[in-house]
Amino acid sequence: MTPFVRAAGAFLACGAALISCGTAPPGATSAGSATSSAPTGGSPTATPVPSPTGTAPLQVERDGIEPATVTGVRIGRHPAYDRVVVDLDGDVPGYTVRWVRELEQDGSGRPIDLNGGHALHLRLTPADAHTEDGVPTWTGTAVPPSGTVTAIAKTGDFEGVVGIALLTGAVKGFEVRELTGPPRLVVDVAH
């Protein structure tokens, strides 16, 4: 097989994975939006990507897997949404994603200041945000100004559960996708 054929095959496989995410991931137990916002035809640059609209909580359970390690959380601004990517070392763990008005730091119970707004709270399990030696693998994320997501806070890294809060001024539609190569969880939050 020539390098060109291998590259073309990899490109088509990646494109198909992004486009075919029209249903909730395996194990999803809610009507929450866990779909792809990629257009299904035409040029990706010719068709604007719609804003996510679902606000219902989403839960995906994954039992019997090794804990994933959160290696980073990053954000990008797009015309219709803010995209937050949780980078992982290991398989994508189970997760819940839901809107909240109050949050507490896992373990201590100390309230987390949401600056009078809301938070889209992600809880990943089984997951850690530290090495076996206790060294943090993710300590925080700088958020650029002028977007829906105003801050990203770690709400916990305790007993196999990692909490991540995406702070916003109001409840907005969101979509969640699981990607591989490398493993990551992608959350789009509408403007």
Automatic annotation (TrEMBL):
Region (Disordered): 26-61
UniProt superkingdom: Bacteria
Residue stretches of biased makeup (Low complexity): 26-57
AMIN-like domain location: 69-191
Keyword terms: Signal
Coiled-coil portions: none
Signal peptide boundaries: 1-19
Positions of transmembrane segments: none
Protein name, UniProt field: AMIN-like domain-containing protein
Organism lineage: Bacteria, Bacillati, Actinomycetota, Actinomycetes, Streptosporangiales
